[in-house]
Amino acid sequence: MDISSFADLDRLFDTVKREHCRLDILFANAAAIEIAPFGSITEEHFDQVFGTNVKGTLFTVQKALPLLGAGSSVILNASIAGSRGLPGFSVYGGTKAALRSFARTWMAELRGRGIRINVVSPGPIDNGVIDALAKTPEQAAYIREHLGDNVPLGRGAQSVEIARVVSFLASDEASFIAGVELFVDGGMAQI
User: Fold this and answer.
1) Which residues have CB under 8 Å from 105's CB, separation 6+?
2) Alpha-carbon distance values, 147 to 114, 144, 173 (Å)
3) Is residue 190 part of a domain?
């Protein structure tokens, strides 16, 4: 499905409502990533990245809202690019900063409903994105080799490491955590 398509979102949430009546956990994980250095950003690039990452996330959560009750958890997947300047990622970083703002604002607007909204901001993840962004296999190998230069733990995260944090934020063990941005970045944005 295309989360920037209202028809696709309506179809999704109609199915959830029909089959389950409610939604307890929503992990909004939208990521259109394309490197475009400032000065070479096109309107198409901007529209595509903002359309998926910002518009898609906003309307995914808004359309899910009638299905979310007290105790529900919404986790927005942002990125360290939203708070750390990364060359070539100004549009992507702007979209992820918008998600952090959404979490703060929505927590204020939904005060009293018992819905928790939090943000996970991963650093580099070794899940195929590096291969997709690199122009050659050699460039991908170089990026992986030099992650240690930027990540204090010396490597990119594995997808399961991010999933564990999302699972925690969705669980009752995080029942009094709301409105936070949790960095899962091996220390990259912290040092």
Assistant:
1) none
2) 39, 5, 32
3) no
Q: Choosing from 50, 89, 92, 102, which is the catalytic residue? A: 92
CATH number of the CATH domain containing 149: 3.40.50.720
Place of tokens 């949790």: 182
Tokens of 120: 């996970």
Helix, strand, or coil (residue 39): coil
- What pLDDT score was predicted for residue 128? 75
What global pTM score does this model have? Answer: 0.91
What are the tokens at 1? 């499905």
Catalytic, 142? Answer no
List, for residues 128-145, the tens digit of each pLDDT value: 777 777 778 887 787 777
Residues 6+ apart with CB under 8 A from 161: 184
Enumerate the β-bridge partners of residue 121: 183
